[in-house]
Amino acid sequence: MELDKMIDASKMEALKKNIDGAKRFAVLVHRNPDGDAIGSSLALMQYLAAMGKEAKVIVPNDFPDFLKWMPAADEIIIYESQKQAAVDYLHSVDVVFCLDFNALSRISELGTVVAGLAVPRLLVDHHLQPEEGFDVQISEPAACSTAELVFHIIYELGGLQALSKNIAECIYVGIMTDTGNFAYASNRKDIYIIVAMLLEAGVDKDITYRKVFYNATLNKMKLTGFVMYEKLRVFSACNAALMTLTYKDLRRFNAAKGDTEGLVNVPLQIKGIRFSCLLREEVPGKVNVSLRSVDDFPCNEVAAEFFCGGGHKNASGGEVYGTLDYAVERFKAAIAKYKSKLTE
Question: Which of 15, 187, 231, 254 is least surrounded by CB atoms within 10 angstroms?
Answer without folding.
Answer: 187
